[in-house]
Amino acid sequence: MSATLRVLIGKPGLDGHDRGAKVVARALRDAGMEVIYTGLHQTPDEIVATAIQEDVAVIGLSLLSGAHMTLVPAVLARLKAREAEDIRILVGGIIPPEDAEELVRQGVLGVFGPGTPTARIVEAVRTGATVRS
Q1: What's domain 6-132's superfamily in CATH?
Q2: What is the 3-state secondary structure (H, E, C) of the chain?
Q3: How far is 127 from 79, CA to CA, in rounded Å?
Q4: Residue 28: partners with Cβ closer than 8 Å, 6 or more residues away
Q5: Ramachandran region of residue 109, left (φ > 0), alpha (ψ -120 to 50) or beta?
Q6: In terms of C-beta density within 10 A (0-12 exposed, 13-18 middle, 19 or more buried), how is residue 71 classed?
């Protein structure tokens, strides 16, 4: 019997809209994963500390504030500093294509925009394959 895949869903920064994050969290739960939702207004430090404490395999970051090119690299840097680079990152939100490409180059597993079928996100979490959406 394999262990249940654990995923943390975080809302870094000042963005106060979490409907998409909750939809994704529900889809992952419905797919049999254990999901930890950290709530709104989390710092990169808080997200990484919780991810390590909860022993998650994947962090999903939901960003609609436009701060993705600051906050996502900050999370990646803190994972590296804590020697937790094995935790993969998915990003969802309104991300311009050129920024999405750069985030994938920096090590993000996938970037998903509004309207992405939740089945694609579930599959990305399960397989660990890099996805450009």
Answers
A1: Cobalamin-binding domain (3.40.50.280)
A2: CCCCCEEEEECECCCCCCHHHHHHHHHHHHCCCEEEECCCCECHHHHHHHHHHCCCCEEEEEECCCCHHHHHHHHHHHHHHCCCCCCEEEEEECCCHHHHHHHHHCCCCEEECCCCCHHHHHHHHHHCCCEEC
A3: 21
A4: 7, 9, 35, 60, 121, 122, 125
A5: alpha
A6: buried
23-78 confidence digits (pLDDT tens): 999 999 999 999 999 988 899 999 999 999 999 999 999 998 889 999 999 999 99
Residue-wise pLDDT tens digits, 79-88: 999 999 999 9
How much is the mean pLDDT over the chain? 92
Residue 20 predicted with pLDDT over 80: yes
Measured between alpha carbons, how far apart are the two ends of the chain, in Å? 32
